[in-house]
Amino acid sequence: MGSPKAALDWYGSTLLRRVTGLVARAVDGPVIVVRAPVQELPELDPAIEVVADAREGRGPVQGLAAGLAAIGDRAPVAYVTSTDVPLLHPAFIRRVLQALSADLDVVLPEIGGHHQPLAAAYRVDLLPVIEELIAAERIKPAFLFERCRVLRLSAEAIRQDPAVARLDPELSSVRNLNDPPAYADAHAVPAPEIRVERLDAVGSRSDSRGHTTVRAWTLGAVAEASGIALEDHVVAVLNGDQVTHSPELPLVAGDVVGFTTFRHSQRPCAPPPASARSNAARGRG
After folding, report:
1. Environment class of residue 134 by beta-carbon count within 10 Å: exposed (0-12), middle (13-18) or buried (19+)?
2. Residue 99 and residue 221 in one domain
3. How far is residue 278 CA from its own chain's centroid?
4. N- or C-end of the chain: fewer Cβ atoms within 10 A?
5. How far apart are CA 11 and CA 99, in angstroms?
6. Residue 268 resides in a domain
């Protein structure tokens, strides 16, 4: 790429900030970034945890070991992603995680004729097997798949999920950016359409039905397009449950954002828990 992928701009945010934010929307366990031992990362949400590879340049299996070790007993399953997939959709993550039944260790998507080990679900208790493979210098993902129960999930099977079929029909969730032209092409993709609802008197740009539609990659861009300042007394309600006023919150197709105000004596209601999953995200390009 010529520069660190994690810090590449994505409409006022970064690739790493966007991808970690999207994963956080699909899981309720810790979101962990695995970096090289001396790698610098762009600013992240304070809730994101960062750990380092034991050794640099050892590939995704080494990073997987670091991420699973950091999760520990806080979650049984991890969704693993690369940094350079800004078109990732939470619906895709949920589909992969939901395919991991009790008799499986890994759900490995096969899309476009390629295995996707960095868009896959892994049981956290695979860590001893992974560490054994690393010690034996068998650090290719294929060696791991030989040692565990793997479901190879086809593109057709992924699209059977109604949410994926509607929101990510091209499976752009696995569209990674390996060089500047690929980055430029992805950056030129139109922003997703976001439905904006006025929950009270905040804002003014809504039609007679109380909502409008804007194209935006982040909550901050939606607020700006709606003429709303994300101040301390203004919060957004994402898809009816997640309450936030973080301008870098990443948005995707199908999102509905409502803006509301509250007095300092009030507290917004916390969202209900999502599915019990976790994630390890690789911070390197």
Report:
1. buried
2. no
3. 11
4. N
5. 33
6. no
- Asked if 154 and 227 sit in the same domain, the reply is no
| Mean of the per-residue pLDDT values of the chain | 87
Across the range 73-90, mean pLDDT stands at 96
Q: pLDDT digits over 98-123, tens only? A: 999 999 999 999 998 999 999 999 99
- For residue 17, being part of any structural domain is answered with yes
First to last CA, the chain: 8
DSSP string, 43-100: ---TT-EEEE-SSTT-HHHHHHHHHHHHHTTS-SEEEEE-S--TT--HHHHHHHHHT-
- Are 116 and 231 members of one domain? no
Q: Is the pLDDT of residue 285 over 50?
A: no
Q: Would 73 be classed as within a structural domain?
A: yes
Please tell me the pTM assigned to this model.
Answer: 0.88
Q: What is the pLDDT of residues 193-209, one digit of tens each?
A: 999 987 665 544 444 34
**Would you say 12 and 218 are in contact if contact means Cβ atoms under 8 Å apart?**
yes
Q: How confident is the model at residue 282 (pLDDT cuts 50, 70, 90)?
A: very low
d(CA 77, CA 61): 16
